[in-house]
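A quick word before the example. In earlier lectures we treated sequence and structure as two separate objects. From today on, think of them as two lines of the same record. Here is CBN-SRX-133 protein written that way.
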Amino acid sequence: MLLHHLVTCVLFLVSLLGFIVNAFFFLKLTALQKTLNSFQKLCFVKGISNALICASIILWAVPLSAFSAKTENVWRSWNIGISELTASGGYIFGPLCQILMAANRVIVLYCPLFRMRMERVPSTNISIFVCVLVSLYCSIAGMQGPCVLIYHPETLAWSPELSTCIDSMDGLQLATIIILTFIAILFNVLAVFKLIYDKVSGITDTQKSRRRKRWLAMFIQNVIQDALHVIDMINYSVLDKLVEGEGFHFIFMSLSFALIYVLDGIVMLRFHVYTQQRAVERKNWMFVVAQFSPRQT
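And the structure line, produced from the sequence above:
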């Protein structure tokens, strides 16, 4: 019982940190940027999704486990609805956003003229809306199927209600995440290949260096974010079955699930907010130097 309350407290603290980091990210991003570009819009929406998932853990999962509720005593319809929205539709939304981020860079690098024509159409907003619809479909379809996801307060884990569905669902989820991650990484590799080997005319060497550094930072961000979901699914589908004990199950199932949203928020905060702040500070410094530098006569 002591271990159960201890791991519940850890889950609460990690989820609270994830909510704070992601909420701080999208609030700070909107404060720094009056108009968000396509990539920043996708990160902004992803930050909101991360914060909502962390909030659902704090407001639903943690109280049930803290009060030692039994699965059979929890409102089944509520449990299924929140679990499917959090651990199914909400979970798949992250990798879908990663594909859009990578595809956005490929289009900008390989088809700049097409991108300029598409600016008249809110393509990013439409893409985000489609991702939301796909995520909601996954949640609603899951609610109607025989292998519904529920939260088990005793083990602090989201898993199928029927034990006979566990193996098939784990295999399906792992394969889905790996396929989506592979697509996103493929787009990222295409973008980096274009960036390294393409010769851009009309700009200075300094501008070329800054351009490559900016795109390399975006590539690193995406690869890290792609890896988070794959690692979590491997923890849940593979490693968890190789260990025994409540503590190990908590680490590979619940803690891994909550931790990816903390790390995801930190990555976006590092590569967007702090980088943008340094860029603004550098521009302000250059402006001050230009103002006070001696003029040539």
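Notice the following. DSSP finds eight helices and two strands in the chain. We will return to this example when we discuss secondary structure assignment.
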